[in-house]
Amino acid sequence: MKTEMAMPIRGISLCSFGILCFLLNLNSFISPAAGYMLKDCRVTRTTQAICQKNSFNAFPNDIPLIVTSIDLSQNNISKLNNADLKNLPNLLRLNLKCNSISIIESGTFFVQMSLEVLNLNSNRLCKLEEGMFDGLVNLTELRLSFNNIQTLAPASFKSLSKLTFLDLGHNKLRNLANILNHTPHLQILNIPANKICNFHSWELSNTSTELVSLDLSQNQLMVFSLTAHIFPNLKLLNLEGGMKNGIVWEVNNTSYLSGVSKLDISGVHSSLGFQEVLETFNSSLMYLKLNHMNNNLRVLIKISCKIPSLTSLEVRNNSIKVIRSDMLHLCTNLNILDLGTNEITDISDNSFQSLRKLNILILKSNRLTSVPYAIRKTEISKLDLSFNNINVLGCYDLANMTCLRILQLNENHLLNLKECVFKDLVNLKHLWLQNNNIYQLNGAFQKNMPKLQELYLFNNQLIDLDQGEFKDLNSLKILSLQGNKLKELKKGNFNGLSNLTNLNLESNEIEEIHNGTFSDLKALQKLNLMTNHLKYRSEEPIEYPPFAELSQLESLLISTQRRRLKSALPQNFLKGLTNLSVLNIRSMQLTSLHPLTFNYTPNLNKLYMSSNDFTDLPDNLFSPIQKLKSLYISRLNLRSLDFLLLAHLTELDFLQVRKNAFSVIREPVMQSLSTLVYLDMQGNSFTCNCDNAWFLKWVKNNNQTQVYDAYNFECNYPPDLKGKKLLEIDVESCTVDIGFICYICTACAVIMTIAVSFTKHFLQWHLVYTYYLMLAFLYNSKHKDKRAHQYDAFVSYNANDEGWVLGELLPKLEDEQGWRLCLHHRDFQPGKPIMENITDSIYGSRKTICVVSRDYLQSEWCSREIQLASFRLFDEQKDVLILVFLEDIPMQQLSPYYRMRRLLKRKTYLSWSRADAHPDLFWEKLRQALETQEHPMGEHLRLTIEDGPPGERQDQSKV
C-alpha cells in the first residue's frame, strides 16, 4: 500500500508497532476474509443478485454462495467460461439477456444442477453446440430469442430432459430438426420470426410430445404438413403473419389438431384457402384471433363464426369504422368479443342482437362518443368502453344492464355524473372512471350499486365530497380518489363504507382532517394521504387525533406534504394505530419528532422517514417499536447513528441511511444491530483514519450484512485522502485482533509451561550451577583486589557427618597440625544472609575441604557450597579444593551429580573408607594438600591418583 493511502496510527505506541504488524500479518494467513460484499452488484433479501447495467465484460467472481438468482442483463459479457459458475451450485435463475455472448464453453453449466430458468435472449450465439448445456438436468425454462442461431447440433438439448419452455424466436433457423429429440416434456415451443418456410412434422419427432403451445408466427410458411399425430396435447397454435398466400396446408387427419382450442391467424391478407385451414380445427376451436386482416374481413368473420365451438373472437387493429347488424349475425355462440383498437364511431342498434351468449364485450380504444344502444340488448357481465370520446352518460345509457359486473369508462371525457346513471347496475362490482374530467358526482353513488367492491375515480376534477356521497356502497373495499382537487375531509364524507379496506387520497390539496372523518372506516387497512397540504406545526398533543378510530389500519402513507413552512407532528398524531405495520412520513419538512411519537404503534414493521430536516433523533425514539424490520432514514443530516444504540432493534434487517452527515461509524452501533442483512450508506463522506478502521474490516469480512455499493464510499477527511476510495485505505496498522493475540499468548504460555517442565526435569542442576556460578563471579570481581585469607580451609559437610568432622577432622587438623578451619556452626556471622556467609567463608579461606557422603550429595546447601568452590577453582586456576569421601559411592549413584563426576575426572581426592589400614598416611596426605599452594591446575602435588570414584577404582599410587 502506498504511503499516502495509509491511515494515521492512533492508540498504538511505536515500540509495539512492529510486533502488532507481525501479528496482524500472521493473522491474515491464518484467518482469510470470508466477506459478503459485492463490487458492482447488490443482493436482495430474497437472495437475488442484481448486476444489470454495470458494463461487465466478464462474469463477476464475487457473488456469494447464498445467491439463488442472478440478473446480469444489459452488460457486455462476450463469453461464458467453464469456471464462471463453478462456485454457484445453488443457482435457480440466471438472466443473461442483452449481452454480447457468442461463446459458451463446454462444461460451463456442469455444476448448475439446480438451475431452473436460463435467459440468453438478445445475445450473439450463432450455433448451439453439443455439450453447451450439459449439467442443466433440472432446467425447465430456456430463452434464446434475438440471437443469430442458424443451426442446432443433434444433441444440443441432450441434458435438458425436464425442459418445459423453449423460446427460439427471432433467430435464423430454417427448419425444426433436432429441437424435440431430447426434450420429451416440452410444453411451450416459441419459434417466431425465423426463416422457416416449410413445417414438416417428421422434422420434430416421430413420436408424440407433450407440447401444449406452438408459436410459428412471422415465418412466412409455404407448407404446413402434419402427417402424424405428434401433438395430442396441443392447445394453442400461433400462425400470426406466418402464412403466405397460397400456403399448402396438409393435415391428413383432422384429429391431429383436434385439441387446439386457441388459434391466431392474424395478418392473413387473403381468404383463399382460409376455410380449409379452419376446417382442420372445426370441432375444437374456441378462441380465434383475426387481427390486422384488413381485406375480406367480413368474409373471414362469417367463415369463422360457422365453427360451432368458437366462443371467443378477437378482431383488433382492422380499421373498422362501423359495425353493421349483418357483420356478426352468425356468431351466435360467442362468449367474448373483442373489437378494441379499431376506429369505430357507430354501432347499429341490432349489431349484437343475435349474440345471446355474449358475456364480455371489449370496445376500448375506438372513437365512440356515447354508449352504444346495442349493448342494452345484451346480458354481458363485462363492458370495456375505455379510451373513447364519451363525454356524457345519460340515465338510460346503461339501462337494464343488471348482469353487468365490470364497467370500464376510464380515459374518456366525462364531466359529471347524474344521480340516475347507475340505477340499474345492481350487480356491478368493479367500476373504472379514472382519467376523466369529472368535477361533480351528484349523488350517483348514494343509492345504487350495493355490490360494488372497487371504485376508481382518480385523476378527475373533484373539489369537494358531499356528506354521505358513498353511503349506499356497503360492499366497497377499494376507493381511489387520488389526483383530484379535494381540499378538506369532513365528517360524513365516508359514511356507509364500513367494509372499505383501501382508501387512496394521494395528490389532492387536503389541508385539514376534521374530527370523525374516518369514524365509519372500521375495516380500513391502507390509507394513502401522500402529496397533500396537511399542516401541523407543533409537537403538542392535539384534541382529536385524526386516526384514532382506525385500529385495523396496517399501512399509512402521508409523505411529501406540499408546504413551505417547517413542521412537526403532534406527539399523539398516531394515536389509535395499534395495528399499523407500514408508516411513510418522508419529505414532510419535519424538524423533530417527539420521543413518544411511536408509543401508539407497537406493531410497526417498516418505517420511511427520509428527506426531512432532522439533525438528530431522540435516543429512545424507536424503543416502542421493537418489531421494526426496515428503516429508511436517508437525507436527514444525521451526524451520528448513536441513537440506534438504545433503540434495541433486535429484528431490524434492512437499514437505509443514504446522504447523511456522519463520518464515523462506531462499532457498538453495528454490534447492536445483530440481525441486519442489508445496509445502504451511499452518499456519505467518511473519515479515513483509525476511527473507521474496524468498520472497514467489518464491511469486508462480515458474512451476514451486505453493505450496498461499499466500493464507492469516499474519504472526506483528512484532506490529503479526500476523494480516495474508503475500502482502498490500509487499516492493518490500526486494529488489533484481540482473539488472535489471545491465541498467541495462550500458545506461548503452553510452550513456556512445557519448556519449564522440561528444564525442571532434565536441566535443573545446570541452571542451579549457572546461577551460583554467576553469584561467585560477581563476588570475586568485587573483592578480588582487597581479599585476605582469614582461614586455612573452609570445611563443607552435611549435618549428619558432623560427628566425624568434630571427632576426627577437627582434632587432627587444628589441635595436632595447627590449621585454622572455618566451620559453619561456629564461624558464620549471625544475622548475615547464609549465601553471603558461605561466599565470604570460601573466598576467605585458602582452600575448601568438601566432606562427601551420600547425605552430602542430597543436601541443597552442600551443593551450593561445592558449586561456589568449583567456580573459584576454575577462576583462580589454583589448587583450592580438596575432596574427602567418607564412604564408597558407585558411579551410577553419582550420575545425577554431573558436576561431582566432572571434578572426580580432573581433581585429586582422599577416601576415608580406604584409610583403615593406614590412617596416618591419610592425615599426612591431607596435611600436604593443605600446604600446597600456587600450583597451577593440572600440575599440583598429587596425593592420590585413581581411575574412577571410590568403590569403583582398585589401583592407587602413592606419593
TrEMBL record:
Its main location: membrane. The lineage of its organism: Eukaryota, Metazoa, Chordata, Craniata, Vertebrata. It comes from the Eukaryota. GO terms for biological process: inflammatory response; innate immune response; toll-like receptor signaling pathway. The keyword Membrane applies. Residues 940-959 are annotated as: Disordered. SMART domains: LRR_SD22, LRR_TYP, LRRCT, TIR. It is found in: Membrane. It is a single-pass type I membrane protein. Belongs to the Toll-like receptor family. The keyword Glycoprotein applies. Pfam families: LRR_8 (PF13855), TIR (PF01582). Residues 789-930 form the TIR domain. Keywords: Glycoprotein, Immunity, Inflammatory response, Innate immunity, Leucine-rich repeat, Membrane, Receptor, Repeat, Signal, Transmembrane, Transmembrane helix. The chain crosses the membrane at residues 762-779. InterPro entries: Cys-rich_flank_reg_C, Leu-rich_rpt, Leu-rich_rpt_typical-subtyp, LRR_dom_sf, TIR_dom, Toll_tir_struct_dom_sf. This is Toll-like receptor 13. GO terms for cellular component: plasma membrane. The gene is LOC115537185. Residues 1-35 form the signal peptide. One of its GO terms (molecular function) is signaling receptor activity.
